[in-house]
């Protein structure tokens, strides 16, 4: 029945999915700790050593190591699933799912490029340092810097699709999708939402004005029937 029971030797017998579930939650917890709790200590240590320009690069290196650890030690939970849809290979549902996931990966890559992928990876900070330029963050507004600081990762919608749009949502995938989605969503504050909404309204206003003032937008009129434009000789 999935409850803890005492065995013959008096020890508790856990369900078969308990240890894999505990392992997976522990691994996601490591990801939480590295992504949030260790960020400020890392900044202080690098500032003390005078190499704060390497912060983003080292942060990404630690993130890659944690993700590799999760991949190596992740334990599947296949004994139950929230849903399981049987899809035939090379059928139209299979190709539809493939198209959705491929388009999502391309959209995620495009968003990273638009947000300046060199800054996200930490290359830009290093280049600016060795060219004796101020850090890239000084060229951005305070609100934008705050949004970047609270943004767990670009592509909230894309990651939600990649995590949840699947024919089989097994127990371990449910844990991974649920915890990572909660982590990403809870990272955004009301201040970030207000900034994004304000910038979106400003951009839409600029686009509307540019379209209205475009030379290509000409006023068209028709002459009365039978009349022609007279040219001066």
From TrEMBL:
Q: What is its main location?
A: nucleus
A cellular component term, taken from the record's GO annotations: nuclear inner membrane
Signal peptide range equals: none
TM ranges are: 17-38, 58-83
- Classify the protein's membrane topology as the record does: Multi-pass membrane protein
User: What does the UniProt keyword field contain?
Assistant: Membrane, Transmembrane, Transmembrane helix
Q: What is this protein called?
A: Nuclear envelope membrane protein
Q: Which organism is it from?
A: Diaphorina citri
